[in-house]
Write a structure and sequence with these properties.
This protein is mainly β. It has helices at 36-39, 133-137, 150-154, 184-187, 198-204, and strands spanning 25-32, 44-51, 61-71, 74-83, 96-104, 120-130, 145-149, 159-164, 172-179, 193-197, 219-225, 228-233, 239-240.
């Protein structure tokens, strides 16, 4: 979608000051696939106004920028954000979080009850840092995103294989995890792999936290028996506890 023409100001009363949901306030500190003029304006601080249910998910949030974002010949006052990874939730105490970000190019969206994609323009994947006194106390791993099979995510399988490849973008840490019931056909079926925050994989199997810093090219098989939880390096046969 290309740039839209400048908006014509309507002779209507000014909108009342919006109040953020639970006073949620963030700043965008890093972006991927973003317009150059956006990167040059980081950090971008914004406050969440309200949720905007969409046709595909309810995970869209309307937010007001602390100061306008320059975008070509326009000033962007509002953005819509949504969690980048399945399993992530936008809320108080989230710390840092990966978000999909869209500029609101038609401010009549502020009067809508549902998300309207024609009034927005998707611009970037960003890392947002929660602001406020409580956020500073939150401890999160902030280890980026990874890809796991749907069976792992839904709990119908248990971790069996995990390997690391080059990430496809700055927020992708490159880890890929496969369940013990997953077949090659299952893995290759569209929709059977989901992008999640690495913390979600830690929730599924805490042992993965111990191997997070292993390099690209790592290929491990996971075991859980009477001797404990451990990994076997498929290249060397070495046990990694």
């Amino acid at each position: 979608m290309g740039l839209f023409d400048k908006f014509k100001k309507k002779e209507t009363p000014s909108k009342p000051e919006e109040k953020g949901v639970e006073e949620l306030k963030f700043k965008l500190i890093d972006c991927d696939y973003a317009p150059q003029d956006m990167e040059n304006q980081l950090p971008i601080t914004f406050s969440i106004i309200r949720q905007l249910p969409g046709s595909d998910t309810n995970d869209y949030w309307l937010a007001k920028c602390e100061k306008p974002i320059k975008y070509g010949d326009k000033n962007i006052n509002y953005i819509v954000v949504g969690c980048r990874y399945v399993g992530s939730k936008l809320g108080k105490g989230v710390g840092n979080i990966a978000l999909n970000v869209a500029y609101v190019i038609d401010e009549s969206l502020l009067d809508d009850t549902n998300m309207n994609f024609e009034k927005c323009e998707y611009v970037a994947i960003c890392i947002a840092e929660e602001l406020g006194s409580d956020a500073a106390k939150v401890k999160t791993h902030n280890l980026g995103g990874c890809i796991i099979t749907k069976s792992l995510y839904e709990g119908t399988s248990k971790l069996k294989w995990i390997f690391r490849e080059e990430g496809v973008n700055p927020v992708d840490n490159g880890w890929r995890a496969i369940g013990d019931t997953d077949t090659e056909e299952y893995i290759n079926t569209p929709g059977n792999n989901v992008v999640v925050d690495f913390d979600r994989l830690v929730e599924i199997e805490p042992a993965v936290l111990s191997i997070y810093n292993m390099p690209v090219g790592t290929d491990l098989e996971f075991f859980h028996d009477e001797t404990g939880r451990y990994f076997i390096d498929t290249h060397t046969g070495k046990r990694i506890s």
